[in-house]
Each structure stands twice: as structure tokens, then as C-alpha cells.
């Protein structure tokens, strides 16, 4: 047990070093606008209020999910904070689907001299960003990739969970439609305004 624990600590130390190093690389190479993500994290909350309103999809959703009004009325501050934190994490991860410039960083980041900003790979990076740094950085492009993210990732996850929970296709379509729409809006905002 002690050997397992020590090995686990070594693994987490290495993982933590990698995460810190990776974060350091991204901050140096491509600034992240954290304030934007704090704002974009509100999108699922605001759109969710409208989407799941009884006059839109709320009654159908309650019926398909077998949720009564009392469950919805008991939504407190703890649930709201958790919802906001998860929305923030979703927004933060979405940037890697909608901003293509991150991919060049991941390709070059392990090259000699890249992090130190001294090697040939870093010079290639500077050339690339001078020429293509703002390519495809529009709301429309982010909307498209956010839509695709929602369609292929969110809908797949919701569909798999719904199959195991024996939920109807109405249930899947209501939730998938929401996350496709939310991903598209968030993707557009992130692509247009981050960096």
C-alpha cells in the first residue's frame, strides 16, 4: 500500500509539473483572457433559463425527465455556484476547439528553444503568428466550430447517458439542442474576443 501511495505521489507530482509547465507555455505564447471566460460562463445559465422555461421546452423536459416543480424550486446558491463553475470549465475547454492557433503551440511546444524563445521553432512560431495570428478569429467561425463541438461531442455524451438511463429521444433532443446552441454561442464569443 505504501509503495502504491508513493508511486501515486510521484505520478501526481509529474502531472502537476506538466500542467504548470503547459500553462506557462500557453501564457507566454498565447494570452488567455480569463475575464472573458467568467462572462461566457454565464451563457448556459442565461440561455438555460430561457430554453427550459415552461413556455419553450420546460414542460416537455419536466415530463420526459420525470421532474416535478418542487425539485426546480429548491435550486439554491450551492447549485448555482456549482453550475457556474462547471460552465466556466466548459467555456475554458471550448477555446481549444474554436481557436486553431492553439494547435501550432502544441505542435511546437516541445521543440528545443521554444519555451526559452530562442530556437528555430520559436522563430517559426513568431512568423506564423505575424502572418496568420488573426485568421479565422471571428464570431461566425467560432459559432461554426462551437456548433460542431455541441453536435458531435455534447450530443454523443447526452445520447450515451440517455441510453443507459432509458430516456426518450425527446429528452435527448431537448438537452442536445440546448448544448449545441450554447456551444455555438460560447464558441463564437470565445473565438472573437479571446487573445
Task: Describe the protein in words.
Helix content is 79%, strand content 0%. It is mainly alpha-helical and 195 residues long. It has a domain of 127 residues. α7 runs antiparallel to α8. It is elongated.
Summarize the structure.
Helices cover 79% and strands 0% of the residues. It has helices spanning 2-29, 34-40, 43-51, 54-65, 69-73, 77-98, 101-108, 120-132, 139-164, 169-193.
| Gross morphology | elongated
Strand percentage, roughly?
A: under 5%
Mean pLDDT: 84
**Which percent range fits the helix content?**
over 70%
- How far apart lie the N and C ends? 46 Å
From N to C, what is the helix and strand string?
Answer: HHHHHHHHHH
Largest sheet: none
What is the gyration radius calculated from CA atoms? 21 Å
* Count of separate DSSP helical elements: 10
Overall number of strands: 0
Provide the descriptors you would attach to this structure in a database record.
single chain; 79% helix; mainly alpha; 195 residues
Amino acid at each position: 500500500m505504501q509503495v502504491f501511495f508513493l508511486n501515486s505521489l510521484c505520478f501526481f507530482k509529474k502531472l502537476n509539473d506538466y500542467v504548470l509547465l503547459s500553462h506557462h507555455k500557453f501564457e507566454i505564447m498565447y494570452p488567455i483572457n480569463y475575464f472573458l471566460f467568467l462572462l461566457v460562463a454565464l451563457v448556459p445559465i442565461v440561455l438555460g433559463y430561457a430554453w427550459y422555461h415552461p413556455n419553450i421546452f420546460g414542460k416537455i423536459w419536466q415530463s420526459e425527465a420525470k421532474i416535478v416543480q418542487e425539485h426546480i424550486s429548491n435550486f439554491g446558491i450551492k447549485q448555482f455556484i456549482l453550475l457556474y463553475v462547471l460552465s466556466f470549465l466548459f467555456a475554458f475547454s471550448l477555446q481549444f476547439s474554436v481557436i486553431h492557433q492553439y494547435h501550432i503551440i502544441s505542435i511546437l511546444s516541445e521543440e528545443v528553444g521554444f519555451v526559452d524563445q530562442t530556437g528555430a521553432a520559436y522563430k517559426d512560431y513568431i512568423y506564423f503568428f505575424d502572418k496568420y495570428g488573426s485568421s479565422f478569429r471571428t464570431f461566425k467561425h467560432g459559432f461554426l466550430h462551437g456548433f460542431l463541438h455541441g453536435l458531435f461531442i455534447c450530443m454523443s455524451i447526452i445520447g450515451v447517458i440517455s441510453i443507459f438511463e432509458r430516456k426518450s429521444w425527446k429528452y435527448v433532443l431537448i438537452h442536445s439542442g440546448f448544448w449545441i446552441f450554447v456551444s455555438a454561442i460560447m464558441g463564437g464569443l470565445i473565438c472573437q474576443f479571446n487573445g
